[in-house]
Amino acid sequence: MRYLFLLLFSFCFLPVFAQVTINGRVLDARSQQPLEGAVVGDAVTGTQVLTNASGQFRIVLASRFDTLLVQRATHRLQKLVVPQNRKQLVILLQPLAVNLQEVVVRGYETRRPLLQTAGSIGLLEKRDLERFSETTLVPALNTIPGVRMEERATGSYRLSIRGSSLRAPFGVRNVKVYLNEVPLVEANSTLPLNLLDAATIGSVEVIKGPAGNTYGAGTGGTVLLETVRPAPGETSVSAGGLVGSFGLRRAFVSAAVGSEKSNFLVRYDRQELDGYREHSALDRKTLLVSGQLNPSEKQTFSFHGYYSDLYYELPGALTRAQFEQNPRAARQLNKDQQASIDLSALNLGLVHTYRFNDAWSNTTSVFGVFSFFDNPFPTDYERNTNQAFGGRSRTTYRTALAGLPTRFTLGVEGYRSFMNSRHYNNKAGQTDTLRFDDEIVQKQGFVFGQAEVDLPANFILTLGASLNSVQYQLTRVYDAAMASSVPTQRRNLDPQFSPRVGLVKVITPQLSAHASVSAGFSPPTDAEIRPSTGSFNTSLQPEKGLNYEAGIRGNALNRRLTYDVVGFWFKLKETIVVRTNAQDQDEFLNAGATRQQGMEAALGYAVVQAPTQTLRQVRLWSTYAFSHFRFQEYQSDENDYSGNRLTGTPRHVLTLGLDANTKPGFYLHATANYTSDIPLNDANTVYASEYYLFGGRLGFRRTFLGSWELDVYTGVDNATDRDYSLGNDLNGFGGRYFQAAPGRSYYGGVQLKKSF
């Protein structure tokens, strides 16, 4: 009887010790591309196998409780216990350094490795964004050469790509922005980036210069954003918080469910800030719901709903004397009038991709935007209701012409927006007498086509073009200054043709050279043809630009050294500039032409790259942008500004960085930035001084008990407590140019994640 009991007892535990066969794939966490030659081993028995060209492997473990060790020379070591009843795994390895042949970019609709792409593109992945505090995208985007993001007030951002901030006193203009392949638009053609919470962004791709052949209007460039997504097979819950100087408080919770066929994410973020300056508090709440379905190998559905509720105060610009006396002060009129912005918005997007066969595929997206905007300003009170609907579709055909691999892309994008805009007199932050009531309809669309040909000798040729159309319609329902009704006014811009030619030569698997010529245009926005003065500017013309650029990129020293250098020459006609009148209202006009020449460089070197050692990685990197931007033809009344420096653009921007991480889990990110002086008016008689900034983040990130991940960190920004102005008011009336940036500030936070 005793032996029978022992026999039965052994059978009960036999499955524990039985061998189990595991099949899986190893992918790069950055590009989602398969990794060949990764070593997958059993930590108990020492059995090892290598992944094939598709990243696939098959290994027999002595027990389902054994630990897998997955490593590759270019990626971080990963340990994992095989989940119960899971015999098919997808394992994501974090790269130690950028491998340009494996980083796939979406820009220009090529879906090619960066090494095979003709154009200047900046990339930021989640790990790059996490070098800084999760409160803002500003410092991360400013590490991309040629990109300048400014904060004019707490939460009020301005984005400049190669000097495009001339005409962006609020929000983002002449730069196209996409979120999960869905164009982000507001009914007045601006995009308040402050609606997006930095922590919800998983990757950023910035195409610098005109990209009109695939993305339509925008002389500055295009920004492609992707929200955070759960990894295949991930099921987890996360929570975290952060506190910092000047009353910073932040918290988030999220839940993710993922499998081989689908993933779903819900995330809520809340951020509050008392503000560095007087009258500069902020309160932002965001809710992100996103998901992806893969019902078959042929098709993919993805969707997102992004709701934002944002309130922040506007301290106003200061004169130089006020700025030097007390940079934390606010303009008295702004305080008296309770100047602020209250903005809530819902962005909805749905994307469907269908692969008919190896030759044909289509991706179609539809979107809707709804927002409500309240803006008590020193001179008036603006209240808007916005809505926009649109879509984008592209079809790709792969074939061979004369034996040369060729890919054709044909697509269309368009949207219709409606805005009801009411302007009142502002009485200490409350609406008073109605000044005028407008209804604005805007229709914007374009068709685009592109051909890519893989030529002999490792040349890749790209030819593309788009044809764009923009229409405005203004109906003034009420005008207190007019005794009679105001007829509907329309503004139809002539169709704009934007071609592009790009050529890449892949010299070696580690080096390529590229050159391109591209044209683009940027129409005046509603905020410019209908400024706060209440007029309708029918004479304002669209900007038109032609860009030439050439560069090299690659890696060397066994991929330890990476580099990307590009030079460009950009000529812009009918440049739109902004002025502030005596009533503190913005007015816009065409300023002739500008000539923008420059050079941008990014360099990185992995001093230590040892995924199995205690000190896993030490990486030094640097980016630099030289901008020789001038007004070429600019006559304003009796003043000739031809030859002057372009307003709002520094000549030199240099950023240095150090990243280090260890096997125990400690990590360090340190950053230094130098920005040269900046002309603040077209006459070049007033400049913002040059400045140096230093900051860093120190933390400890560790996985424990197999399924818990902890991240504890602390950081400092502007460590030397430098007084400087960021997001200056260009051509400000009354000498009010300066928007003081925060002084020395500290933050600390914790994040906890549980995986199932």
The overall strand count is 44
> How far is the N terminus from the C terminus?
41 Å
Strand-residue fraction?
Answer: over 45%
Quick check: average pLDDT? 86
**Given the structure, what is the number of helices?**
7
Poorly predicted parts = 3-17
Structural class of the secondary elements?
Answer: mainly beta
What helical percentage do the residues reach? under 10%
The biggest sheet amounts to:
22 strands, antiparallel, barrel
- What Rg is obtained from the alpha carbons, in whole angstroms? 27 Å
Outline: globular
Task: Write a concise synopsis of the structure shown.
Helix content is 6%, strand content 58%. It has 756 residues and is mainly β.
Structure in words:
- The chain has 756 residues and is mainly beta.
- Helices cover 6% and strands 58% of the residues.
- It contains seven helices and 44 strands.
- The strands form nine sheets. The chain has a 22-stranded antiparallel β-barrel.
- The chain is globular and about 90 Å long.
